[in-house]
Amino acid sequence: MTAVHGAPGIPPLVPGGFPLVGHGPSLVGGSRRLTFMESVRAHGPIVRIKVGPRDVVVVNSPELIHKMLTSQADEFSKGLLFEKLKLFGKDALPVAEGKPHLRRRRLMQPAFHRQQIAGYVTTMRETVEPYIASWDGGASLDLKTEMQLMTQGVVMSALFSASPPREPACTILNSVDTVFRTAIKRALLPVSVLERLPTRTNRKAKAASSALRAAVAEIVAEHRAHPDAYDDIVSLLLTAQDDTGAALPDDEILSEIVALLAAGSETTAVTLAWLFHELGRNPEMERRLHEEVDSVVGGTELTVDHLVELPYTGRLVQETLRLYAPWLVTRQAISEVTLGEFTLPAGTDLIWSAYALHRDPNLYTDPLRFDPDRWLPERTQPPKGGFIPFGSGKRMCIGDTFAWTEATVITALVALKWQLTPEPGAVKALGEITTHPSQLRMVPRPRGR
Predict the structure, then answer these.
(1) Total domain count for the chain?
(2) Is the pTM of this model over 0.85?
(3) Could you tell me the CA-to-CA distances from 111 to 120, 159, 250 in Å, in that order?
(4) pLDDT one-digit tens code per residue, 396-428
(5) Which of 151, 194, 239, 335 could form a disulfide with 268 if both were Cys (CB 3.0 to 4.6 A apart)?
């Protein structure tokens, strides 16, 4: 594949089309999406590719990505993928733009303050331990699903004071998965008119969105019925006021909670699934993890004070976030914008890939090797903008510290009780809404310390 350079200031065009869309396997070939995004990095800091009939600009340079997300953030909207994620709710924080985004972020920020998150650790532990204890030693697990149920349970208990039984929790989980799959497909479709057709996929997406809002409506109704019993994000939203002093509309409250539920569980669950997959392939790393958690936590209940004493556990989480970061994030130029030496017309669709960025050999030594010790302070670290699993700037994921803490807690709690052995079979990385394992079955075996 060779880049064809255009006139000065115009990004080059990568010929041959963009194999993410079109027909046949291109729309569902998740592993091909990842391979393509990695290959595009060889063609320069900014390149232009085809997504169906559209030209899309891929930003590869870590410096330019950093500018786009920080100093020049106001020159870009969130773009195509986030537009499709409005299936969760058109006004929710993850998809909101401009002043509405700023107001909603300020409203919800206290719930994600570091001190507040420290207080969530006990809730995280009490939520996760029953899931882990329910595993049947020697029986195969669909590990991604188990991790999704755990992280969804943590979000619901810590932020919504809710704890649904396993069957309703699975219904919520399946609905979230359906909406995410629909959003990524719609973002890659050549024409948006297909979204309005009464296809089976569109009907399933609509039903999934309705099921999510119904589940969340029950939580909101419970909070309204017993307002003095709760102090969480739902309470915060129910007592919030807009610029006119009016309460937030019910539809906005539902949208916000649904979006938090989806975004708050997806990335962390997939990260944990990949982490234990890597440990299953690296017995020495697993031994070091078990040794650390046994010496720090063994025989006691895990608390927030233990987390600073688990540096190797933290590096395992960080390395997993590097190697299996989200593969596609979008932006759109609001007006004509100059990014580096390139001039982009108003309306230009842009994408960037943390997955490809984090695997660039110019930024990381031996980038495809899972090496948690690369994050030791004495080792060379990536440049600014070279490690951004949660984005950067004012639109950086509001729950990044929550996710870091949750992933560390769950990793430690699983490691205290179980050794996870992989079942035979290839595990491929797929470009879905995040970077998913194709399938991941593991067998938990009780640890004898």
Answers:
(1) 1
(2) yes
(3) 10, 8, 20
(4) 999 999 999 999 999 999 999 999 999 998 899
(5) 151
